[in-house]
Structures are given as structure tokens and as C-alpha cells.
Write a structure and sequence with these properties.
alpha+beta, Ribosomal Protein S5, domain 2, four-stranded mixed β-sheet, single chain
């Protein structure tokens, strides 16, 4: 799947900033910055990975800056960034 660089989210409290970019490497490379990564880092990365795979994105560089986002917010931001990066509209049938 062809990707371009895209982002979604903010640096506000309770949100997450997701940046997706093409990569030469294989798989998803997720870089996470979060004050709660020690406690919730694995869960945040799992939500990002699962969401991207459901959308058909299997190869990308993802930079995530978390400010305490809930799983539903993480999924929404990842979906928005993926739609912008791929041009694939997941809300249309």
C-alpha cells in the first residue's frame, strides 16, 4: 500500500499525536513518547498496531506522542492519520 506522510491528533491533555510516514524497513516501527509508557506503553502500541493492520497498513514508521489518551482516542487518531496517509476512505462502503 502506498503511503505518504500524515498526522492526526494534538498535544493537548487526553489526546495523542500520531505521525505516519513511509519506511524502507519491513513491518511497523512504532516510536512512543509518553509519560505513562512504563505502565501503558505496551497497550498503546498494541492499539496502534491492531488499528493499522485492520486498515491494511503493514509497513510504516509511526511516531506517537501520548498525553494520556484513552484507547478509543488512540484508535480514532490512528484511523484518521492512516486515511490521510493512504487516501483510502474507511468510512465509505
Amino acid at each position: 500500500m502506498e503511503l505518504k506522510t500524515a498526522m492526526a491528533g494534538t498535544m493537548e491533555s487526553g489526546d495523542i499525536l500520531i505521525q505516519i510516514a513511509p519506511t524502507e524497513g519491513e513491518g511497523l516501527n512504532i516510536e512512543l513518547q509518553s509519560s505513562v509508557s512504563y505502565q501503558f506503553g505496551n497497550q498503546i502500541k498494541k492499539v496502534i498496531t491492531d488499528t493499522l493492520k485492520e486498515l491494511g497498513v503493514t509497513k510504516a514508521q509511526v511516531n506517537a506522542t501520548d498525553k494520556g489518551a484513552l484507547d478509543c482516542t488512540i484508535r480514532a487518531r490512528v484511523t484518521a492519520a492512516a486515511v490521510r496517509a493512504t487516501g483510502k476512505d474507511v468510512w465509505k462502503d
